Amino acid sequence: MAETLTNLTVQCDEAAPAVVRAAISQLAGIDRPVLEDTKLVASELVSNAVRHSRCTDHEFLNVRVSGDGWLRVSVFDPGWSGGIAKIASRPLQLGGMGLKVVEKVASRWGTKRRAQGYEVWAELELT
């Protein structure tokens, strides 16, 4: 069974990605390149949740990092949006690259609708 390395509850606002990156920076025993990739993936998933979940700054996101031979980043939001933004090619528009970054850095990623909200997760190899 995977060990929880950190479990955070963060306010759903523009500061959330930085709060999550800072917390992940404190994780011990993870090689620096993997730790940096984990911070990047977590930041992108949290940014997407803040932007697309329609949560207010009075609501919270739950961010969990766990591992057992790999690292899994899970972001739970209240789930008001009903789905994740599609990966699209928009060369003249700023933004919209977060899931492409996650797709390139993570070994795999996915989503799951839950009764209490929406989960987006990504897994990274430790090597």
Précis, in short:
This protein has helices spanning 16-25, 32-52, 98-105, and strands at 3-11, 60-67, 70-77, 108-114, 117-125.
Key descriptive features of the protein:
127 residues, alpha+beta, 5 strands
Question: How would you portray this structure in words?
Answer:
The two termini are 19 Å apart. Helix 1 runs antiparallel to helix 2 and helix 2 (32-52) packs antiparallel against helix 3. This protein has three helices and five strands; from the N terminus they run βααββαββ. Strand 2 and strand 3 form a beta hairpin. Strands 1-2-3-5-4 form a five-stranded antiparallel sheet, with helices on one face. The model is unreliable at 83-90 (pLDDT under 50). The chain has helices at residues 16-25, 32-52, 98-105, and strands at 3-11, 60-67, 70-77, 108-114, 117-125. By secondary structure, the chain is of the alpha+beta class.
